[in-house]
Amino acid sequence: MHLASLLPLIALPLSLAKNISISVGDGGLIFNPEVVTADPGDLLQFYFYPKEHSVAQSTFSSPCKPLTGGVYSGFMPETAEGTTIFQVTVNNTDAIYLYCSQIEHCQNGMAMVVNPPSTGNTLAAYKSAAKNATTVSPPAIAGGVHIDVTLNSTSVSNTTSTAGAGSNTSITSPTTSSEVFQGGAPSRASLQCGLLGLIGMSGLVFAMI
Ligand SMILES: *[C@@H]1O[C@H](CO)[C@@H](O)[C@H](O)[C@H]1NC(C)=O
Ligand SMILES: *[C@@H]1O[C@H](CO)[C@@H](O)[C@H](O)[C@H]1NC(C)=O
Ligand SMILES: *[C@@H]1O[C@H](CO)[C@@H](O)[C@H](O)[C@H]1NC(C)=O
Ligand SMILES: *[C@@H]1O[C@H](CO)[C@@H](O)[C@H](O)[C@H]1NC(C)=O
Ligand SMILES: *[C@@H]1O[C@H](CO)[C@@H](O)[C@H](O)[C@H]1NC(C)=O
Ligand SMILES: *[C@@H]1O[C@H](CO)[C@@H](O)[C@H](O)[C@H]1NC(C)=O
């Protein structure tokens, strides 16, 4: 009886947005994990490994080619693991196909999918088609924010400060910067509300137990 009344409280945090860490190029031309299931509101957080990878979005049918309006991290020439992450908010459950736009990386299987359809359009099929594709880098960083994690900072750096982490200066114009910023801000605010709720809820559960 007591347990039953607790269940709704325990179930609630499961519906909150979560952060999904994905390593990029750790030990080879690979995203890890390379098949991800994410809910709307979740944050994809890409950690870059040496030497110079990127995260770019394509369609399933045009592997290694930018999807217009898709996400792009820019090249991230990390000299040590995880100094800057690229963070993308998941807005729906549509499939998101991602590749590294470094020359030959996509052809060699450096691709991943978020929310693959239950049938067809598998990552294996994408990789197979990619072998014969030509890689194209997106024209500009888009659809996410760079976060400096070197000082355990959770503050989102603007593109001026991330330029040092490898962004091409010609594509980090102030216009791009503010657009990226405005897109990211609301989700962070709502995430913080969610976290406070989670903390409060846990306290309540513990108190009741
Ligand atoms: C997710 O990452 C953000 C940094 O972008 C951080 O502020 C937040 O606390 C993290 N949330 C969880 C649930 O770990
Ligand atoms: C790869 O491309 C070449 C040249 O366009 C074509 O002849 C060949 O059939 C393609 N192979 C596959 C597996 O698509
Ligand atoms: C989700 O929406 C935000 C805000 O418009 C955008 O920055 C982000 O790139 C979108 N996520 C995806 C996977 O397209
Ligand atoms: C960052 O966090 C890790 C783990 O919590 C800690 O060991 C390290 O000292 C922190 N570094 C800085 C610069 O605060
Ligand atoms: C952006 O970065 C520059 C250089 O690090 C800094 O001077 C400026 O205050 C930052 N602006 C914001 C809004 O954080
Ligand atoms: C920056 O990008 C532009 C346009 O793609 C390119 O012409 C230029 O060579 C790049 N600069 C660097 C330093 O990569």
Major sheet description: 5 strands, mixed
The SS-based structural class is alpha+beta
Radius of gyration, in angstroms, nearest whole number:
19 Å
General form: globular
Q: Provide the low-confidence segments as ranges.
A: 157-208
- Strand coverage percent: 15-25%
CATH fold annotation:
Immunoglobulin-like
Strand ordering within the main sheet = 2-1-4-6-9
Number of strands: 9
Task: Specify the CATH architecture.
Answer: Sandwich
Question: SSE string, helix = H, strand = E?
Answer: HEEEEEEEEHEHH
Number of domains: 1
Q: What distance lies between the first and last C-alpha atoms, to the nearest angstrom?
A: 13 Å
CATH class: Mainly Beta
Tally the helices: what do you get? 4
Describe the oligomeric state of these chains in a short phrase: single chain
InterPro entries: Cupredoxin, Ser-rich/MCO-related
Keywords: Signal
Organism: Imshaugia aleurites
Region (Disordered): 158-181
How would you characterize the overall build of this protein?
- 27% of the residues lie in helices and 18% in strands.
- The chain is α+β, with helices and mostly antiparallel strands and 209 residues long.
- It has a single domain, classed as Sandwich (Immunoglobulin-like), CATH 2.60.40.420.
- The chain is globular, with a radius of gyration of 19 Å.
- The model is unreliable at 157-208 (pLDDT under 50).
- Bound molecules: 2-acetamido-2-deoxy-beta-D-glucopyranose (6 copies).
- One 2-acetamido-2-deoxy-beta-D-glucopyranose binds next to loops.
